[in-house]
Write a structure and sequence with these properties.
Number of helices: 11
CATH class of the domain at 2-175 and 204-233 and 296-302: Alpha Beta
Strand content: 15-25%
CATH topology of the domain at 2-175 and 204-233 and 296-302: Rossmann fold
Oligomer: single chain
Distance between the termini: 43 Å
CATH architecture of the domain at 2-175 and 204-233 and 296-302: 3-Layer(aba) Sandwich
Number of strands: 12
Radius of gyration: 19 Å
Length: 329
């Protein structure tokens, strides 16, 4: 059984790759020519060079594969040129799904995001049926994932595709080489660069549990359905304090009201346009923080057999990996 995996050089995609290899799949990975291939080292995978913006390369990569796990995405909370993110996350997804369909791939798992879901006004965990629409979504990344999921759902209906959607929450753990925006929170905390916080919340899950959820969706998911793959709901302060507990370094932190953070984020973005480095806070990320991003994985637990370990274990593994790999002293 051969599975094509996109995004395997990245954080979540590499975890899905490792999970599939452990389950006995032959794995082909779609890799850009200039990608950092550190996460592929020492794993017996077939490399197909290509790009989500190059439909011909997607057709070549999909040939002779039985399954598709489309995990790749341009995941940044700030981009100077949003059109690049749209080309990868939206148009690239459309091209890949069509290529997979034409190649006769028998099972597809598309990695969406909880970013496509709505929020409950009372802060209670949202689920797969919590309504949302594009106008309510902040940030280019989240909007691109919403648009991509809508395209995938329509293609699944129009072409009767054997496709399942998974909506991961916030993955934490090892092999976050870039690191991702959430991984940077861990690294900044370890470096003592998180002296303040805003009142928001996230759903934290171990990246390997989310990867296992992809395999379960492939095995047991219902065509056309979507499944939240998450973990524990935590406030940002609880996340920072948990990292403090892991390291044994206690720090006092200041709560900064969101209205105060907005002008600071605006200034950081203007500086980023000059320095060409991603700002530590963005207007979109602060607008997102106005809501508690809490979710429930009950459907995946019930229908797929999905399980997740406590969030503290995910944070512990992330801390250990970042320390062991020189991201902080």
């Amino acid at each position: 059984m051969k599975s094509l995996v996109t995004g395997a050089t990245g954080f979540l995609g590499s975890a899905v790759m490792r999970c599939l290899l452990a389950a006995g799949h032959d794995v082909r990975v779609l890799v850009r020519q200039d990608s950092n291939r550190q996460n592929l080292q020492n794993f017996p995978v077939e490399i197909a060079e290509g790009d989500l913006r190059d439909p011909a390369s997607l057709k070549r990569a999909a040939q002779d594969c039985d399954n598709l796990f489309h995990v790749a995405a341009d995941y940044r909370l700030w981009v100077p040129n949003p059109s690049t993110m749209h080309d990868i996350n939206v148009q690239g997804t459309r091209s890949l799904i069509i290529a997979a369909s034409e190649a006769g791939i028998q099972r597809m798992v598309y990695t969406s995001s909880v970013a496509t879901l709505g929020f409950n006004p009372d802060g209670s965990p949202a689920n797969e049926d919590t309504p949302s629409d594009l106008s309510a979504i902040a940030g280019y990344y989240k909007r691109s994932k919403y648009q991509a999921e809508q395209i995938v759902r329509q293609l699944t209906i129009d072409h009767q595709l054997p496709l399942v959607i998974v909506n991961p929450s916030t993955p934490i753990g090892p092999y976050d080489i870039r690191p991702t925006p959430t991984g940077r929170i861990v690294v900044d905390t370890l470096k003592g660069r998180m002296p303040a916080y805003v009142d928001t919340g996230l759903n934290i899950a171990h990246v390997d549990d989310i990867a296992q959820g992809h395999l379960l969706a492939h095995q047991h998911g219902k065509t056309g359905e979507r499944y939240i793959l998450g973990g524990d709901n935590m406030t940002l302060l609880q996340i920072l304090q948990t990292i403090d507990d892991i390291t044994g370094l206690k720090r006092n932190r200041t709560n900064i009201p969101i209205p105060v953070m907005l002008p600071l984020a605006w200034i950081m973005e203007k500086i980023a346009l000059i320095t060409h480095t991603e700002p530590r806070a963005t207007l979109d990320s602060i607008h997102m923080a106005k809501k508690l991003m809490y979710f429930s994985s009950a459907k995946a637990e019930r229908e797929l057999g999905y399980r997740h370990r406590p969030a503290v274990e995910a944070l512990q593994d992330a801390v250990n990996w970042f320390r062991d790999n020189g991201y902080c002293k």
